[in-house]
Design brief:
It contains ten helices and five strands. It has helices at 14-25, 32-42, 45-55, 62-75, 91-103, 118-132, 139-153, 156-162, 171-174, 177-192; strands spanning 3-8, 28-31, 82-85, 108-115, 166-170. The structure holds adenosine monophosphate. Residues 10, 32-33, 36, 53-54, 57-60, 65, 86-87, 89, 93, 136, 145 line the site of adenosine monophosphate.
């Protein structure tokens, strides 16, 4: 199975669709947000550093994030394929991921971009706040995360396009979770055929 990067704004459904993909294709799953939240829960040094950034809606510095990503990747079984969920979020991270994979004889196989209107994203994240109680799902921090996404992460979409890896899936066209999943599965099947 080819490695997959799942890409989109906060609340676009990266976690949800990653889970569906992992279940069907049995890929390894790296969610950098989950890795950081686990470190915070454990009270580790890394968790203490990460917390300040997350609570402010800011990105963890690239150097630190790249080291965490490589260490997490190397713990997964080889050759199974991995879905990267929430990484890369900057061009520097994307370049580092490409280099890190190449050094191991691997590569990014495809990028799935989830496109969702900002108002829909805000509604979903506020709903998630009441359901999951994530500290960074409050209106002020969400707005900051959107700003960070627009400035630092969204430009990466073009980077993936230039690498010939980008495939886009738009909520306003597909209109349902089931419709999104079906279209994504078809694209994965095609990429691996
Ligand atoms: P997520 O669960 O993917 O929405 O991530 C939650 C928060 O963790 C983000 O708002 C960032 O503060 C931090 N984070 C997760 N992944 C990354 C990354 N690749 N680079 C920098 N910060 C990250």
């Amino acid at each position: 199975m080819k490695n997959i990067v799942i890409f989109g704004a906060p609340g676009s459904g990266k976690g949800t669709y990653s889970e569906a993909i992992v279940e069907k294709y049995n890929l390894g799953h790296i969610s950098t947000g989950d890795v950081l939240r686990a470190e915070i829960k454990n009270g580790s040094e890394l968790g203490k550093i990460a917390q300040g950034y997350i609570d402010n809606g800011q990105l963890i510095p690239d150097d630190l994030m790249i080291d965490i990503l490589a260490a997490t990747y190397d713990k997964l079984p080889k050759g199974q394929g991995v879905i990267f969920d929430g990484f890369p979020r900057t061009i520097a991270q994307a370049e580092a991921l490409k280099t890190m994979l190449a050094a191991r004889g691997d590569e990014m196989g495809m990028m799935i971009e989830l496109i969702v209107d900002e108002q829909v994203l805000m509604d979903r994240l506020l709903k998630r706040a009441t359901e999951q109680g994530r500290a960074d799902d409050n209106k002020e921090t969400i707005q900051k995360r959107f700003d960070v996404y627009r400035k630092q992460t969204a430009p990466l979409s073009q980077w993936f396009q230039e690498e010939g890896l980008r495939q886009t899936f738009s909520w306003s066209e597909l209109k349902s979770k089931e419709g999104m999943i079906e279209a994504i599965f078809q694209a994965i099947d095609k990429a691996n055929a």
